[in-house]
Amino acid sequence: MKILFETVSAFGTVGYILGLTTDLSVPCTVLLIFLMFAGRLSPLTIAYAIHPEGIL
């Protein structure tokens, strides 16, 4: 449950943490960094960057 909270908080760029981030391995930390970046850009922006002709 704590890992899910950290993940959703990272994607939503909320800023709440439970202190679990410092105990994670390097690949998990990199994944959280990617989720923070993706959450900041928004899924629609990322989808448009991948498929610029349009999503629909």
TrEMBL record:
<dbReference type="GO" id="GO:0030001">
    <property type="term" value="P:metal ion transport"/>
</dbReference>
<dbReference type="GO" id="GO:0005886">
    <property type="term" value="C:plasma membrane"/>
</dbReference>
<keyword id="KW-0472">Membrane</keyword>
<keyword id="KW-1003">Cell membrane</keyword>
<protein>
    <submittedName>
        <fullName>Uncharacterized protein</fullName>
    </submittedName>
</protein>
<keyword id="KW-0812">Transmembrane</keyword>
<dbReference type="GO" id="GO:0008324">
    <property type="term" value="F:monoatomic cation transmembrane transporter activity"/>
</dbReference>
<dbReference type="Pfam" id="PF02386">
    <property type="entry name" value="TrkH"/>
</dbReference>
<keyword id="KW-0406">Ion transport</keyword>
<feature type="transmembrane region" description="Helical">
    <location>
        <begin position="14"/>
        <end position="38"/>
    </location>
</feature>
<keyword id="KW-1133">Transmembrane helix</keyword>
<keyword id="KW-0813">Transport</keyword>
<dbReference type="InterPro" id="IPR003445">
    <property type="entry name" value="Cat_transpt"/>
</dbReference>
